[in-house]
Amino acid sequence: PPRILTLEEPVLHMDHCIAFAVHGNPAPTLHWLHNGQVLRETEIIRMEFYQQGEVSEGCLLFNKPTHYNNGNYTIVATNQLGSANQTIKGHFLEKPFPAVSGLFSFRMQYTPKFLCVDAKAFSFQVSIAVGLAAFACVLLVVLFIMINKYGRRSKFGMKG
């Protein structure tokens, strides 16, 4: 009957890989479960393996997995003499937002980090911005006055 020799946690190579090795004679058929449900291979998730004698070695490959791919992965090896399975936890990314209960509790529970600013730092930043704006206005007024005063004289005594 088949025997699972190794099943390793996901590692990032070119893609994320859950490496496995299965021994069996006759060669077992392999399929995967994700959280107890049959895992369907797609462009994002695929299995690659090679058979060397009685041992099948390979990877369950993930192309840019997200938090939806987190969970328990079970390899199931089956042949005419029996079956074997082994489970490993795959964790790729954290969920982007915490769990929310209720319709309006999102606003109360989640505040983005870029909005969390203490009052002293915020008032200092506002005073710097107001000061720069005032300086720019004064500079523009001075330039406008100088252009009006000195810009009207024609050079070399010629009248246009």
TrEMBL record:
GO terms for molecular function: neurotrophin receptor activity; transmembrane receptor protein tyrosine kinase activity. Residues 21-88 form the Immunoglobulin I-set domain. Keywords: Membrane, Transmembrane, Transmembrane helix. The chain crosses the membrane at residues 122-147. Signal peptide: none annotated. It comes from Nicator chloris. InterPro entries: Ig-like_dom_sf, Ig-like_fold, Ig_I-set, NTRK3. This is NTRK3 factor. The lineage of its organism: Eukaryota, Metazoa, Chordata, Craniata, Vertebrata. SUPFAM superfamilies: Immunoglobulin (SSF48726). It comes from the Eukaryota. The keyword Kinase does not apply. Pfam families: I-set (PF07679). GO terms for cellular component: plasma membrane. One of its GO terms (biological process) is cell surface receptor protein tyrosine kinase signaling pathway.
